[in-house]
Amino acid sequence: MKSLNATVDILKTPLVIKISAFTVIAFAFFYLGKHWSDGYQQLIFFSTTRQTPPFVSLSPNHNKQFNITAIIVQNDTVAAPVKNLTLPLSAASTVPPPAPRFFGLLDENGTMRNDFEIGDFDQEFVENWGNDSEVQSGNGGSQESPRFQVKRYGLCPTTMKEYIPCMDNVEAIKKLKSTEKGERFERHCPKEGKGLSCLVPPPKGYRPPIPWPRSRDEVWYTNVPHTRLVEDKGGQNWIFREKDKFKFPGGGTQFIHGANEYLDHISKMIPDIAFGHHTRVVLDVGCGVASFGAYLLSRNVITMSIAPKDVHENQIQFALERGVPAMVAAFATHRLLYPSQAFDLIHCSRCRINWTRDDGILLLEVNRMLRAGRYFAWAAQPVYKHEEVLEEQWEEMLNLTNRLCWELVKKEGYVAIWQKPYNNSCYLSREAGTTPPLCDPDDDPDNVWYAELKTCISRLPENGEGANLKSWPARLQTPPDRFQSIKIDSYISRNELFKAETKYWSEIIASYVRALHWKKMSMRNVMDMRAGFGGFAAALLEQNFDSWVLNVVPVSGPNTLPVIYDRGLLGVMHDWCEPFDTYPRTYNFLHAAGLFSVERKRCNMSTIMLEMDRMLRPGGHVYIRDTLDVMDEVEAIAQAMGWHASLRDTAEGPHASYRILTCEKHLLRG
Q1: Whole-angstrom Cα distance, residue 363 to residue 568?
Q2: Quick check: 466 and 482 in contact, CB under 8 A?
């Protein structure tokens, strides 16, 4: 009896009761599920085992028909027609999968097509922008009320769609005392208070630029709607129009059969030129549409293509639209904005410059910028034509280059190539009174901002700085000798400072690629607005970006341009309190690290940002990395210009003194 009572007590325990209840419920669900399954059509399914090949299993309801309308809840919507799910076995096993769909960018193999077309801007990137005075605010990322407010900027008149402030200052140009030496093609910036105060609009029908490398060969007509070059140079294989595009066959006045053939010819003339190894940085004077520089890119050579804004005023605009480095610049009365010993090769093909005028003052400027021991190539009629006037010009050129101690190393066909000496020994051994003389020892050949040309020969450093460089690409990561002469305060060795900056930007760009997906952005034409030693540009090369970078060195800081060129990069001197010498909408990406916290002591930040907007393409991006105390004003100005701005923490975290403002420019329409 005690045993029976014990058994009853156990059965009354909560655990046993729960187990029993669970078992009853499980059996009930199994029964109901089987009952429902027997009355409902099942789907065909596939089974796979490792021992046998895949086979098709059939539902027990195969070939049965059911009317299920009775169990569907009726509502006010129109029911979709019920489709018979029953398939014969043969049909189920032979129906092919749907063919993949491709949407213009990919071919049937799933790879990028070369012939896809870029359409108009997506509507999300287009904004109607009235010229009202709505106030935009910035608070530097804090949760407090806005500390800075800016009225929204209006659109400029459509007549200003290609406005270059320092080149289109008609009022200042009219006041020039003389224009015979090309003064009107130099910088004449608006006076303070008369600068840009509106947003330069794009031309009607502006479209996203064709991406590189296709842009080397074609651009949209609506983006640069000018046919003057087609009319003047169409027969020289420069450019022609085909429907809604301009096409660039790769020719030039002196190389109508194409730039590649011309470059091969130069390489055979002087094997030491060695494009992509000994020759990395080139200056092309009077560049046309920059086909010479465009085709050098495939040989690991980066070329600064320059031309004035003259009768063929849009040639530099075409070059930049193609994705080729270029600037508006002229040989006139002032030094160009590049350092001494910058270029491994300087090229002039029918550049329409009288090199021997005024005691050779223009060729002396070439001599200043040409690296010691490197080459000047001249392709022009005096080289090969035997007309009296042209022969006299050739003799004048020979006489001048002899006095400059240049050696004529080769004259073949329509090209002549000279080599600059490695040191000053030839200059010092000339006869007394030979002109032009050497410049004074205290003359700084790297002083270029509004510096007038001089009729003297720039001295070469006695220690050989600038001439002793490694070949490309080793020179990119090697601290150059000229780094030791840069006027900077350094508490560690110069070489360690160089390596530290290189590592700093290498790590930052790598993080941008990972976290901010930089590889998905269009970054063909890039400008670093405060370049330092060129570490940002070097990091982009390290990450294999298909882009080129113009490294801008502000006049407010140390002149690091010689280091940038010795590394094999492009750069230019500039004062950001003034406009830059480029056309509107010529850069995809602008980078400004520590720029505003320095320049706000000298000029209005809105002046700089309006110029940034002028240079930036619709759809382009801006990254501003700076201190917290400038971010509220910068953010407010960015919003007042219609940029879509977002403030981010740096890798140091939310308590760091720096922030990153990422901006995207949309297409604004009046």
Answers
A1: 23
A2: yes
Query: How does pLDDT run across 370-424, given as a tens digit for each residue?
Result: 999 999 999 999 999 999 999 999 999 999 999 999 999 999 999 999 999 999 9
Strand pairing report for 326-328 and 302-307: parallel
Same domain, residue pair 388 and 524:
no
Phi-psi group of 68: left, alpha or beta (phi > 0 → left; psi -120 to 50 → alpha; rest → beta): alpha
438 and 532, same structural domain? no
Question: Of 220, 361, 332, 381, whose CA–CA distance to 581 is shortest?
Answer: 332
In a domain, 65, yes or no: no
Q: Give average pLDDT by consecutive 10-residue segment, the chain, 670 residues.
A: 47 60 64 45 37 41 47 41 37 38 43 52 67 59 62 95 96 95 96 92 95 96 89 77 92 80 96 98 94 96 94 87 97 98 96 95 98 97 95 97 98 96 96 96 97 98 92 96 85 84 96 92 96 98 97 97 98 98 98 97 96 97 96 96 94 88 92
| Same domain as 307, residue 427 | yes
Does residue 494 sit in the same domain as residue 643? yes
Q: Where a domain ends, among 430, 460, 490?
A: 460
* Within a domain: 574: yes
**321 with 450, same domain?**
yes
Predicted local distance difference test score (pLDDT) of residue 313: 66
Q: Are residues 453 and 480 in the same domain?
A: no
Count the neighbouring beta carbons within 10 Å of the beta carbon of residue 409: 13
The rounded distance, in Å, linking the Cα atoms of 668 and 125 is 9
**Domain final position from 417, 435, 460:** 460
Beta strand ranges found along 427-534 (DSSP E):
525-528
Domain extent at residue 654? 473-669
The CA-CA-CA angle for residues 450, 451, 453, to 5°, reads 130
The domain total for the chain is: 2
Domain assignment present for residue 600? The answer is yes
Helix (H) or strand (E) segment spanning residue 7: helix 2-11
CA–CA distance, 418 with 430 (Å, rounded to integer): 19
pLDDT at 670: 73
User: If you search the block for the tokens 């450093």, which residue do you land on?
Assistant: 461
Residues 440 and 481 grouped into a single domain: no
Question: Is residue 115 assigned to a domain?
Answer: no
Whether residue 654 has a cis bond before it, omega within 30° of 0? no
**Sign of the CA dihedral with 479 first, then 480, 481, and 482 last:** negative
Q: Which two tokens stand for residue 397?
A: 């050129």
Report the alpha-carbon distance of residue 33 to residue 154 in Å, rounded. 69
Q: How far apart are CA 509 and CA 538, in angstroms?
A: 10
Is residue 417 within 8 Å of residue 435, measured between CB atoms?
no
pTM above 0.85? no
Do 427 and 487 belong to one domain? no
What DSSP string runs through 473-498? TGGGGS--GGGGGS----SS-HHHHH
CATH of the domain at 504: 3.40.50.150
CB atoms closer than 10 angstroms to residue 3:
7
